Structures are given as C-alpha cells and as structure tokens.
Amino acid sequence: MSLPDTMKAMVTMGHGGLEQMVLHNDWPRPAPAAGEVLIKVAACGLNNTDVNTRSGWYSKTVTDATTGGAFEEVGEEDPTWGGNPITFPRIQGADICGQIVAVGDGVDRARIGERVITDGWLRDPDDPGNMDKTGYYGSERDGGFAEYATTLAVNAVPINSDLSDAELATFSCSYSTAEGMLTRAKVTARDTVLVPGASGGVGGALVQLAKRRGARVIALASEAKHADVAELGPNMILPRAPENLRAALGDEKITVVADVVGGPYWSNLIDILERGGRYTCSGAIAGPMVEFDLRTFYLRDLTFTGSTVIDPQVMQNLVKYIEAGEIKPALAATYPLEELREAQAAFIAKQHTGNIVVTP
User: Fold this and answer.
1) Under CATH, which architecture does the 174-306 domain have?
2) Is the pLDDT of residue 6 over 90?
C-alpha cells in the first residue's frame, strides 16, 4: 500500500485560545518506529483534556473554570495533566478509531488491516503499572487530529463492532475515565451513585457503567437535556444544581458521588453523602477551587479518591463491553477536521449532549 509523505493535520501551536489550532495540509506523515503502528484515522473524539491542555488550564496558576479561552497567566512548568511542560507544535486528540496501515520493527505484519481504537495512556512497556512513567496521547506525543497517527502497538486495541467509526471514537477517553473512577470508588450493586454533569461525555459514561455494575444512579443535568440523559438509563434525573439537593433526593441515600464538575456547588455534593460514603473525582470543569469543611470529611468517615491514570486492563474491559453491546455510544455531533475550532467552541459551550467527534 502506497502511503503519502504528507497529510492534513490540525496542529496546536502553543497555549492560548482557539486560534492556536492551525490547519496544515502538508504536515509530514509520521512513520511507525520499532514497537509502533501507523493508523489511518477514520474518526477522533474531542475531550476536555484537549481543551485544557491547549488553554493551559491544568496549571496551578489558573483557578477559573474551564473556558477554552486564553488565560492571563499560565505557568510554564505545570500546564499539562502531569504537571509538566508540553512540547509544541503538537497534534492533539486521544480517541482514534481507524485502521492499521503499517507497522514498525517488532510488530506482527498481520496487524495491518486491523480496525482499532486507541488506549490514550502511554505506559512504560517494562513497568506498565508505574504511574510516574505514563504519558497521554495528544499530550506527551502527537495524537489523532490528523489523517494518520502513530502509537505503541499495545495502545492500538483491536475491536470487532458494527458501530460506526465516529461512534467508536467516543469511547476511549470518556468511558475509560468513567470506569477508572468507578473502579477507584469500588462501586457495586449495593451503591447509589450521584453523577453531576450527566449530559457530558464522562457523565454519560458514568451513568451507563455504574448501571452496568448494578448500581442505582441519580443523574444531575440541565433540564433541557433530560430527555437525552434519560436514554442512558438513570433511575432518576434531577436539575443540574437543585437549591436544596437533600430535599430533591427525597429518600435516596447516596453512597458514591462520581464528579467531573467541581465548582461552587461542590460542597452540596459532599454534604449529602451517607456516612462511610465515597467521593471520586476526575475533573473540575466548573472550577477547581472549592469550599471544603474538614469536619464533614472526617466526622462522617468519607473516602475521597482522585482518578487520572487508569489500570491497563480498563481499555481491554471496555472493548469487551462494547462488543457485547453492554454500553452504547453517546455521539452528539460530528465535525470535519477543518472545523475543529468550531467543534471545540460547541464542546465548551455544551451545545450538545454527549461526545463530539472529528473526521479527517
């Protein structure tokens, strides 16, 4: 198969606003190194990590909610998820669905032609469980907002599904994040899980994956999106931020809060947790700075878990769930790669319910 030397790519040139994403029609096509594969990208999902990395929101100098725009000050030493600098220019995008078209040394050529989705966590092959040796696709190396992309062979996960490329590109980041959170919180069928931001990509995944575990699920979402959220199967849907959350919940006893929202409403979520309850977090799109009463934390025997780097087995499990039809995609909209700026603007404005995908 003859491959072009150049490709179309949306390249992030530095921290800042949407203008930092620049379309190139003649960007050098990458070649797979030893242990890597080359994927012809069919679709690539858009996630908060793409927005936050571009804007520099992960830096401790930023205390505002995720806006997607430029911030007055972004620390040079900690602007990424891992608290380290990022190298520009960078092709972002972690959630590829596509086909392997070439392999590097040491990779079985029989993999050429495989349909795959990507595991975004880049691990040390000799020490895969070491969180300090991890990187993220589209952050520590170029990702999928392009016609072609390379990744470690182990990170290109084969999948057999009737779902479309765009539908499959919704799973990797959002659903692995959600499954990682539920795993850290040890959610079982005995739990009732409260999910703020249930209309978002991770929120919708949390609803489905918690239900898959047999848990009872209470979703919080803006009322305009309740019909969409209802299709995911929660037991109850409440407004995004009820004035009196305890009253709105009625007799429901919340044992787990699975949160990617944070912000000024955060203390309300903690206040309604049952004694011995668990709070798990993998985001703070409404703001990272919260009011925290330590007395609530220790007097009620609560457990807090942060969740970022996931176990290597999570993506393998997700593929099994997808192939068995146990979870479904929440595809909100598809944009051509040339309109990635518009896609991110819509994503930031929460114009859609679910995940947004771009196609080369």
Assistant:
1) 3-Layer(aba) Sandwich (3.40)
2) yes
